[in-house]
Input
Amino acid sequence: MTALAESVLRRLDIGLAFFYPEICHLCRMERATAADGFVGPNCRSQVHFIEPPFCERCGLPYPGDFTAPFECSNCREMKLQFTSARSAVVAHSAVREVIHRYKYQRALWFEPFLTRLILARALPALDGQGWDIIMPVPLHPVKQREREFNQAERLAASLSAASGIPLKASWLRRIRPTATQTLLSRQQRAANMHGAFAVRPGVRLNGERVVLVDDVFTTGATTNACAQVLRAAGAGDVCVWTIARGL
Ligand SMILES: [Zn+2]
Ligand SMILES: [Zn+2]
Output
């Protein structure tokens, strides 16, 4: 990891280190520091980084021995508006629990752990590839008030600080509250997201290449709806980065 990325992570640790006992907040059986995001080595070893082969478009990992680039059957059927979606890790057990507690219970001490995961994979992939802007997937203002923070915005800010790609956190807005997607089918999710996003009035993009950041990628309905709006507003290209990939 670069020195800049390390300094971004160190900044996240400040303020947490003095208030919590140095114990893993997942298993409570091992030592873990604020710098680790209070996730110990044993729990960290269960994290499953995504390795190739995966779908060139949506990043879905495939077992097997593909060497040529390929697109999965879902991507071939859907009109996807982003060029590629990539996630650092698989959204299972430890990672899923950490993200859930971070988002819904304001367990902010996990943030260095999560930030480290996305930086580990996104920084080298984005480096030198000509990306112009980083944007988080926005929350609806009502939901953001309830939750008190937007997890995607915090991740996007760290990725921006570590990569040097400027952050435009308020250019994209969620203009319609949406039902929770958990129990919806792929088609229902796409319909649920229709008209949910808009760029801020007055924002015009001029071919900029946008990195869109979220915490979890599941069917891509949310990020695809964002990418559609950004492309319509003039973005030249949209890629998606998330911490975790639901399988
Ligand atoms: Zn542990
Ligand atoms: Zn795919």
